[in-house]
Amino acid sequence: MNQYDLLNMRYATVQEARTEMSKLLEARPANYSLDAPLYNDPHMFRVDVEEVFQKEWLFVGMTSEIPNRGDYFTVEIAQNPILVIRDADGSVNAFHNTCRHRGSRVCLEHRGKVANLVCPYHQWTYDLKGNLLFAGTEMQEGFDKSQHGLKKTHCKTAGGFVFISLGKEEPEGDFDEFLATLEEYMAPYDVENTKLAAESNMYEKANWKLVLENNRECYHCAGSHPELLNTILEWDDTNDPRAPQDFLDHYAEQSAKWDAEGIPHEHKSYGPGKRNRIVRMPLKKGTKVMTIDGEAGCKKMLGNIKNPELGSMRILHLPNSWNHMQSDHFIVFRVLPISAQESMVTTKWFVHKDAVEGEDYIPDRLRQVWDATNDQDRVLGEQNQMGINSIGYQPGPYSETYEFGVMNFLEWYTDTIQKNLKK
């Protein structure tokens, strides 16, 4: 627990925080920000972890990060180390990265390749499906290896995305319907034939909800994101009440080209607060992708895409991911909580698997716009957190035209917390 958490601890126990959280969310006006404890109290943060990050579907990575048998990556979700691995039949599995002997992490590296999973502590060995193969010769008589395999998490893939849930039961809802749409909309990109070109991990001294709130609006873009605004159009949908006619005309022209190429683009959303959402939006006229000058970031286009001005297909998955799919590369974002006032934002850039670094693409050029934008957002989030920590803070009103996405996010958050607290 850091110094900021200690200063903002208001509740003596997690159970007290649960009770108060329910009351605060019940009383909150839908168009106002949250009360300060929901952003900075460590016990309320613990409730967020238990009721959101240990129960809901979370985005963790892409299948093309582990293209072959034995390839794996690891991720830590609020002190829960997780291992995602490709097994011998090509399936993607996710396990708690903790040995069934004495609990040590089994895979210590962020990425790797193994024939079997061997715990470095006492060499307990598991196959790629998590079955215990070897536990030494010193176990008691009657020891049953079949009862000591790695513990699985729920894991689903669609369109190259990998989602896991740490809950005992799969989360309820229409997630499978969203996955079917994701599979359809991602088909043109042929994710299995892409590769990771660059990755960044940014530590942000702000509550995870502030990171998401900042992402869900572009009210701040004009004053903060000059690099991003070289290419992106701030309107999030053709139904945006602020969208001018020239944008609607531009969308109509681009969508006709998408239709001609068989590229799906109809807006789809699922769940409370549009928690799972896919929408394709054009970029500024004359620009192709989100590079500093709007020109191609990679010489090889993705999948079966022919149109370099494909715009950006924006994919939202709450609680922890937003993504931009473009003609020659795509970018995925993952947010994970660390403490009440600390988060980790991971950004990954993907290109065609046959693209040659330095010849077809330059990682620094791919990263330039979003490295700048991420850091700008980090500063905004940290300043937001510091202001909320003040005794002078009280919840403020959202703009229903500029900040409807934030309102949608908090609608989902409120609904999810209230639902899970009652279970």
UniProtKB/TrEMBL annotation:
Domain Rieske: from-to ranges: 57-164
Pfam families referenced in this protein's UniProt entry, alphabetically: Rieske (PF00355), Ring_hydroxyl_A (PF00848)
Enzyme Commission number(s) of this protein: 1.14.12.1
Names of the cofactor(s): Fe cation
Gene3D superfamilies in UniProt: Naphthalene 1,2-dioxygenase Alpha Subunit, Chain A, domain 1, Rieske [2Fe-2S] iron-sulphur domain
Keywords: 2Fe-2S, Dioxygenase, Iron, Iron-sulfur, Metal-binding, Oxidoreductase
Broadest EC class assigned to this enzyme: oxidoreductase
GO molecular function: 2 iron, 2 sulfur cluster binding; anthranilate 1,2-dioxygenase (deaminating, decarboxylating) activity; iron ion binding
InterPro entries in the record: Rieske_2Fe-2S, Rieske_2Fe-2S_sf, Ring_hydroxy_dOase_asu_C_dom, Rng_hydr_dOase-A
Name assigned to this protein: Anthranilate 1,2-dioxygenase large subunit
Species this chain originates from: Marinomonas gallaica
Taxonomic lineage of the native organism: Bacteria, Pseudomonadati, Pseudomonadota, Gammaproteobacteria, Oceanospirillales
Gene name, Swiss-Prot/TrEMBL: antA
